[in-house]
Amino acid sequence: xxxxxxxxxSIGKRYxxxxxxxxxxxxxxxxxxxxxNGKRTPQDHIWAVRDVSFExxxxxxxxxxxxxxxGKSTLLKLLARxxxxxxxxxxxxxxxxxLLEVGTGxxxxxxxxxxVFLSGAxxxxxxxxxxxxxxxxxxxxxxxRFIDTPLKHYSSGMQMRLxxxxxxxxxxxxxxxxxxxxxxxxxxQKKCLGKMSDVSRQGRTILFVSHNMAAVNTLCSRCIILDxxxxxFSGPAPDATARYFGKFLDxxxxxxxxxxxxxxxxxxxxxxxxxxxxxxxxxxxxxxFPGCNLVINLELKCESNFAPANLAVIVYDSNGYRVIDANTxxxxxxxxxxxxxxxxxxxxxxxxxxxxxxxxVGLWIxxxxxxxxxxxxxxxxxxFIESSETARHTETFPGIYxxxxxxxxxxxxxxxxxxxxx
Length: 422
Fold this sequence. Notes:
Blueprint: E1 4-16, H1 26-32, E2 45-57, E3 61-65, H2 72-79, E4 87-92, E5 96-99, H3 112-122, H4 127-141, H5 156-168, E6 174-178, H6 186-201, E7 205-209, H7 213-219, E8 222-227, E9 230-236, H8 237-248, E10 268-278, E11 292-302, E12 310-317, E13 322-327, E14 342-352, E15 357-367, E16 371-384
Parallel strand pairs: 3-7, 3-8, 5-6, 6-7
Antiparallel strand pairs: 1-2, 1-4, 8-9, 10-11, 11-14, 12-13, 12-15, 15-16
Helix pairs in contact: 3-4, 3-5, 4-5
């Protein structure tokens, strides 16, 4: 018997741009009267996924990464049989579970308890299975006190925690996961990552879509990069994430942030960023090196009023691990703007001892655990190079941060009569 759990053969999905719905309401009929009704051209079609082939073996955890619009979610929907392929086919061996949209089947008028059973049934769990796991689901979501309260009275964070808890307790042989680790606060995200690690250790086959490169490297042994609907690379996860950053983020040389992928409610938006390295004398230099200062200048514009919020600059390494997090909350400082106002901010990071390599800068503004106003995870990229001021061949040491240190070695005399160790 073959040990292949997922086999994808030249699969493709084509959509027609502006395709009309099959069933039309009155508003659709009126709107259609003003739409273009001429002859369509081949340019009216777009391939979201095209000629994709790969295999995933039983018990393997494979990551699927790529920029927004690369076709990742479409590919998972094809594998989950939510949509039919235009070309090719996919064969899956085993019971399939999909975490494609956290919160599927939740209803605000039903209690948390009722929603657990409703959502679980929609996701493919039997009543007996839900009853057996009910206490574990509620404990994981940390909503036991409110489990018999209508969902409309839950905070958004509580709803997301409960939704993920239901989805995460599926027991399929094959699990398709689409960006579900971005729910809740930082503590719950860590808990979600731990749960996914437990699932992977149980021998399940997992196809995991995420923009969190650290999570991809932690969970996945292998990774596939999608670019414009096609496979661009397939190989070990560390190689794939490094390649992803190296290739796709080289285009982030511009200081303009208008086209960057982002999250948040849009009350304010980052508009530009510039990273300037300085030497110990405060003079601007061409490239960053271990021990230099980093001056990060950014601009943002307020679209609508928001409560005082925190501003953060985050630096990631080429594998997506967060190595620096400079947040105004650490100093008890806040940013408050009115609609139409713009602001400039500057962060100065002193003596940054990062190892030579490629790094990325992310920007965030909001209120921790309450509100994200704008989140540009990858705003720009820059390189650290080796300099005469730091030790050479630092790549032989696995640490991320080049901490300045001193050492002292004390050699003790051997005890009289002590036998030397072999």
